[in-house]
Structure formats: structure tokens, C-alpha cells
């Protein structure tokens, strides 16, 4: 590994400190180097907070370290526009840095090379593409949304040992996923800007669809999306009465919303079977970069058939449910759609696998 790659690796490590809290912004890390020594570090910690470059400069100032003449290593091209904070290019030029080493170029239309170009035109040496693949992988959802204008889609399924996804409806519901597996599931929720289910899942399970465990504040809870063409959602279910997170109902025709709570929004896509592509285009237009599809079986099948699922997370429990007529999720369907296992983890007896399509990686 080259010296530049070692420094960029440290910047990637720092970027992880903002995980779950920076959305819709990407994870970004930054270090300042002088005479082969790291003199300051920064990362984008939370939405509305300092960008990584600004934090690194502030870190140097707090230590009494001069920034003029330093080399900057940053995982994403510095922005050159006003948003929640001033442009990072201005901060770097003010700091008097002599060189900026960039991991990934920013595909966002508000940047797209303008940050690097502004620095070069101002006399700063710019190097690009250092650990580019690793940097882009860390901010995969952001990169995907910028290029495709649709969210990156993760399908999440949990089954018993025989692939069943529910038990005997005449008996109390039985939780069959381990505590560790559930904790991992909430980590995936925390990495998502929206969570989608079909209305049958709401009727059967009355889920909250909120993140519990991982710290995501000050970012708000993920948007809860329900595909409900015929307005079958129970008016007293948690998604309709609990305002901890916004709820979006996708329906085929207009329905009475006069009695809905303020956190509930209805969107009409006037088709009997609402196309998955239309749903994703709409969510992309809303700025949703990452979507977690949690069920049920019909919803999973429709998303897989659309060819627009990017990865699948499956948790298989050693527990066997006692319901011969239960719906089953057959893992062979993933192979039929071109998915293969890229990672496998043991979670207190549960087997958790991540599946991706090779050409989409």
C-alpha cells in the first residue's frame, strides 16, 4: 500500500463515525498531513454539522497547528456550492492548503468536478482516484442515487429453518430471530432512508418500522412506505397513529385523507398494480437514496421480478414454526434472479447472508 493509500485509508475510517446520522449527505472523512505526519482529522458527523474538511481545519485550529501548506486527503471531492454549510473549497483555500488528494469524485449535479476544478484554478495541486473503489463503496447509496435518481434497494427477509415467514395465525405470534440478528436488522434500518412494506404486512403484524438501537439523531426516522392500492390500511394501526416517523401511503386512487394525522401522506399512482419502477422513481424524486423492502412475500416477489433490487439480506433461524400452510421464501428464487452470496454471518444461531448480483457490485 502506498503512502497516499495509507492516508486515504485513515480518512475512510474517520468517515464511518458519521454512519446513520449524515443522510442524505454521504459519509466523508478528511485528514491534514504535514511532513508525513497527520496533524488534524475530521469527518462529517451528522446532518447539518461541519463537513469533513471544515472539521479537520477546525481540529487544526484547536490544536494551534498551522494549516497553510498542508496536504489534504478527503474521501469525496470537496463541494463548491452553498448548502447547509459554505463551500468546502472556500474553506480549503482560506486554510492555504497546497495539495488535495481526493478518493471519489462527486457525481452530484451540484458538484461533478467543479470542486476539483476550482481548487486547481486557484493554484492548489489536485490528485484524484486514490482508493476510489473503497471510497465509492462506503457511500454507495449516495453515488447510486446521484447516477440513477432512484434509491438503492435492499430486500430483507427473515425465515424459520424451513423458509417459513409466519406461524399459525390462530396462535400468538412467535419471534424466531435471535437478539443479535434483530440488532443487525436495526442497523440496516438505520442505513435506510425509507422502509417499505405491503399493506398485508401492516394488517397482519401492525409493525412500527422504526429504528431502535442505533443512534441516528439528529436525522429523522426513515420514511415508512406502504403499498396500499385500495386503502385497506387499518386506521388505528401504528403507522397511522404513531408520529415518530413519517408514513407514506402509495395508492391507486384518491381516498379520504381528511382524518389522517399530519405525519401521514398519500400519493396516487393510478394503476391497478402499481409498477415498482414508478414507486422507485417517485421515491428518488423525493430524495430517498436507500430503500429497505421488508415484506411481505408478494411485495418481495414483485420487487425481485422488477429487476431493480440491488442486494438481499436473509436471516434463517434454526427455529421451526408450526404452521404447515405458512408462506415460504425459497432462497432458490434469488439464484434464479442472478443473485449470489457475498457474505455470511452467524448471529446467535441465525444464519445471515447478503446476496448481490455480480454485475451490480
Characterize the structure shown.
The chain has twelve helices and 14 strands. It has 361 residues and is α/β, with parallel strands linked by helices. The strands form two sheets. It has a nine-stranded mixed beta sheet, sandwiched between helices. A hairpin with a 2-residue loop joins strand 13 and strand 14.
> What Rg is obtained from the alpha carbons, in whole angstroms?
23 Å
Q: Quote the distance from N terminus to C terminus.
A: 23 Å
Share of β-strand residues: 15-25%
Give the helix proportion (percent range): 25-40%
Order of helices and strands: HEEHEHEHEHHEHEHEHEEHEHEHEE
Q: Low-confidence parts lasting 5 or more residues at pLDDT below 50? A: none
Instruction: Say how many strands there are.
Output: 14
Instruction: Please state the overall shape, judged from the principal axes of the Cα atoms.
Output: elongated
The chain-level mean pLDDT equals: 92
Q: How are strands sequenced across the largest beta sheet? A: 10-9-8-7-11-6-12-14-13
| Tally of individual helices | 12
Could you say which structural class the secondary elements and strand pairing correspond to?
alpha/beta
Largest sheet: 9 strands, mixed
